[in-house]
Amino acid sequence: MRIHQKTSYDDDINLFEDRRQALWYLALVAGAALLPFAVSGYFLGEVTNVLILAIAGMGLMLLAGHTGQPSLGHAAFLACGAYMEAWLNNRGVSFLISLPAAGLFAGAVGAIIAIPALRMSGIYLAIATLAMGIVAEDVIVLLEPYTGGVSGTFVGAIRLAGFEIDRYGSPSGFYWLCLAITVLVALGYANLLRSSTGRAFVAIRDSEVSAKAMGINIARFKTLAFFLSCFVTGLSGALMAHFLGAFNYEAFLITISIQMLLMIVVGGMGSIHGAFFGAMVVGFLPQIITGIRQQITMTAIPGLDTGIFAAILVAMIILEPRGLYGQWLKTRIWFQLFPLARRDLFRRHKSYLKTERLK
Amino acid sequence: MEVAQLLLGGISVGCVYGLVALGFVLIYKATESVNFAQGDLMMLGAFITLQFVNTAYWGLPFWLGVLLAVLVMAVVGYLMEALVIRRLFGQPQFAVVILTIAIGFVLRFAAGFIWGHEPLTLETPFAGRNVALGRLVIGVDEIFVIGATVVLTGTLYLFFARTRLGVAMQAASQNQLAAYYMGVPVKRIHGLIWALSGGIATIAGVLFASRGSIDPNLGLLGIKAFAAAVIGGFGSLPGALAGGLIVGIVEPFAGRYIAAGYSQIMPYAIMLVVLVLRPNGLFAQVQSKKV
Predict the structure, then answer these.
(1) Which domain holds residue B174?
(2) Is A207 a residue whose pLDDT tops 90?
(3) Do B286 and A213 make contact, defined as CB atoms within 8 angstroms?
(4) Where are the beta strands (DSSP E) in A121-185?
(5) Which helix (H) or strand (E) holds B263?
(6) Of B97, B101, B287, the CB nearest to A123
(7) Could you give the ipTM of this predicted complex?
(8) Cys-Cys with B37: which of A148, B68, B104, B139 at CB 3.0–4.6 Å?
(9) Is A123 close to B105, i.e. CB distance below 8 A?
(10) What is the count of structural domains for chain B?
(11) Backbone CA torsion sign across A182, A187, A189, A190
């Protein structure tokens, strides 16, 4: 059993609880960096996919999990990033410029979307973003000169400081690039949450009225949250473009948006870890199901992985609203307190229905 | 003449959207949870009717099959509330949104597993028959859709205005705690509302299936019904039907008179305009606290 003695106010907002925790994360990053030497190219591709999903998940998590603005149309911002990256890359722009440009483009679109979205909350925002996601599908097809319409577009290798990084030609290079961006985004995100901006986001999520009373400019911070969230999602979209190589509007259907949201809910709303856990579930579940099916020689059932994923989600929301990360925390605390953990330690309170008609 | 033909087709499609929207609004008004699986309930209702009615399956008489399907779906709706949704009582709206989306995915998978992913056609007694009214050609299926919607709406109006249960449902939707103090069994009422909306979804599904084929992805039509519900104000039953009619009528006209590719955006564009101008729907129920 460990006891944390806090000796300064900084202890509350330090990035890591103590040196031991910092070492664990360092070991995790080092292990991830050494992964290409240990596994096959196919598996490395799957892990790269998980990393890209995790970046997208972090983008959405900032908006839905930490600012409390659920978006059901985030694939539209993935599309912004992906098409911008493809367009710039095909014109020979270096990755160092095209990646931030893709993120900024998605972020700018997000900030524009935020203006009408500021006035909505809860389900109205969810429905409006859903509609936006559907309209985005059609807009992609209509903007044929830039997006290639229905037939889609190709994107070449990444040009970065004299190197050419291709997903198939140099899978390790592409993996390291994705890992570096993931780590940077995660660090930036964790730092943002320590700052007053991050705390303003969380305050808006928990109660807009109280946040306003504490002098937080709701409109400004909501717009900022939209911008940052869409920026990060755009980065993920740019990487996804290189991962897919060739894509059309079908890579950004409304079902993808919904799946992104379900992903972060399974992982655990309101935590950076949740984005990673969720991405791992979405990325690896189809592989696991295929593996099990081959073991028991069952015929393929279309849509099985989506069905199982949704069933897991239903169980998760009822039994563990804080997702996989909540379960992980509980397990960890159980071991930390051993043998003092009690069954009712995490009991949820019963409460009345709180009306959301009064906001 | 062409305008009248388009209008008639639009109204009959709009009736289906309106009925699905009615299901959303019923549940939202009474329980404050938004059922994103309403479109999938409609899909399931249509498939269960098909199971009862089609000769390739059980081959029951059409009306008996529809009646049985409505009853089965009412039970499904009740069980959904009693077993799953009720567990989330007191949690944020958002949790229910996610939950119903997930349930929709599960239902879609189940339907695809049982009935396959190929489009199927419901055998109705009035498929392919037309009535000529002057130069206007009206399908019997269109008359059936519009007539059924009118009858159902009238029945629902009488139910809510005249019966004890209907008044109790209205009370529970206006103020749960007060209704509970007055002896309204709020939990059971919630279950019954879900049952009612499962039944309405089935009728909407049958109406839709009478005009074309059905497949497990039919539930995505629910998103269009969302647009209808929002246009009509998310808390008003007549508004939901009106919104459905607006969406239904706009679609064929946009398809006819606006360049291809833009027409399917129209329902959502109207909805977004409504949301931007009146962020809480045309008939707002949400009020903002001032600081």
Answers:
(1) 2-219
(2) no
(3) no
(4) 153-154, 158-160, 163-165
(5) none
(6) B97
(7) 0.84
(8) B104
(9) no
(10) 1
(11) positive
